[in-house]
Amino acid sequence: MLPERGPDGRTAAAGRARRLVGTRTAWTAVGDGEFFCPSCGGDRNYQRLTGRRRFTVLGVPVLPRGVCAPTVECAACRGHFGTDVLDHPTTTRFSAMLRDAVHTVALAVLAAGGTCSRAALETAAAGVRAAGFEDCTEEQLAALVEALEEDTGRFTGEPCVAGLSIELHEALDPLAPHLAGPGRESILLQGARIALADGPYTPAERDALATVGAALTICSDDVGRLLAAARTPS
């Protein structure tokens, strides 16, 4: 007589054996916060969990079976993810990073080309407002550039000095891995439009934009192509 089989083709005896013995994981919460849940597709609360596996008999834990890798559990969908999911910024954090990046690029390009051009200031302020600083004005940007020059001892038209280069990298390096190619190019092109608002690129503006491209992990050939495309009327 053949052993009785269930719908999945496994024997009933094997199913009973699994109910008699098995493993169970006991989870312990060790932290919480907010993250971008890849399952929900939005910002959610999470718990960071550590787990210990135990061998069970009749549902009763009897022997330890080791520890589980740390896990992140979404409070909404209850999905479990590796802790590397916390490296992805939340939607709120990403918006702030993008806004700060556009603002920093605008200041760098204005510092390279000067703030005497009303057209450059208007282009810069419009881009910064579109990125999220809704109250940004041309006067505010001009004042910030003047303060930056006093702080660094740098004069308009000089190459991108170390301090300004560091600020660009601090704003752009954390953002670049989370932006697709078109998003990174868009930030560079916004800077190019500011530089071109009052005429052709100056050497200092090209130097600042090259630094922006490097911080956004855009290769030098592509930076040159994009700057040339921005200069060509559409």
List the helices and strands and how they pair.
Elements: H1 12-20, E1 21-37, E2 42-57, E3 60-74, E4 80-82, H2 91-113, H3 118-131, H4 138-152, H5 162-172, H6 181-196, H7 203-215, H8 220-231
Antiparallel strand pairs: 1-2, 2-3, 3-4
Helix pairs in contact: 2-3, 2-4, 2-5, 2-6, 2-7, 3-4, 3-6, 5-7, 6-7, 6-8
Describe this structure in words.
This is TerB family tellurite resistance protein. It comes from Streptomyces cellulosae. This protein is α+β, with helices and mostly antiparallel strands and 234 residues long. Helices cover 48% and strands 22% of the residues. It is built from 8 helices and 4 strands, in the order αββββααααααα. The protein has a 4-stranded antiparallel sheet with strand order 1-2-3-4. A hairpin with a 5-residue loop joins strand 3 and strand 4 (80-82). Helix 3 (118-131) packs antiparallel against helix 6 (181-196). The chain is elongated. It starts with 11 loop residues before the first helix and ends with a helix.
